[in-house]
């Protein structure tokens, strides 16, 4: 049994498709099929159920995959630790976040201080971040709400208020604060359903005793700002984004219920975290 066989098996198990796995691994499909068949011969059991060109990981394969992922992750952790000890690791950190607009200045400051470290930044949904942390594809992720799951650790580093943004001509525009229940019946501009921010703000409205009358759904806060300025409706807006958006609308503090969100930086508990990843994590936490 060879290391390459295990790496190939993990990719085929992930995709459950020989052709796509061969393309991603950049090897010929017949060679990949032969490698998987040889692994199954060595183990004495089939790892996949085959029906025509379709393959599905079976019970043997699922059990074996758990062990293979543990072994490959341990080997990768060992490589990272040795590179840290040898001082050879200049540093690459795989970081995921739902949106990184709030943190672009901090990321820029960190890279200015550590030009030898490369941050590979991607956007991902909450479940995808959890899965990639546990699989080892990510070193760190910035998330809200904080992840509470076995095998994942995190530090909460920023809590911000969620404000109510209204057009400059709105009846609330002369005020500095409002009870959210006063906004019942107003037309709301919201982030699209399925986004954690939307789930959170819908819950705020329920706590205030109403369901929001949603007249417009968008995918970014910058678009929300455009529609507020046009007088389409009112919207929830994160405190840290108000100055960045720069649109001429009015924002109010929400007196009740408490409307806040907390960011967390998370990592996999049992995996080795490189020196570069630890430096970024500590810098981010200390900078807020």
UniProtKB/TrEMBL annotation:
Protein name: DNA-binding transcriptional LysR family regulator
GO MF entries: DNA binding; DNA-binding transcription factor activity
Keyword Cytoplasm recorded: no
Residues that span the membrane, as ranges: none
InterPro entries attached to this UniProt entry: HTH-type_LysR_regulators, LysR_HTH_N, LysR_subst-bd, WH-like_DNA-bd_sf, WH_DNA-bd_sf
UniProt keywords, alphabetically: DNA-binding, Transcription, Transcription regulation
Family: Belongs to the LysR transcriptional regulatory family.
GO CC, any one term: cytosol
Keyword NADP: no
Domain of life: Bacteria
PROSITE patterns: HTH_LYSR
Family matches, as Pfam families: HTH_1 (PF00126), LysR_substrate (PF03466)
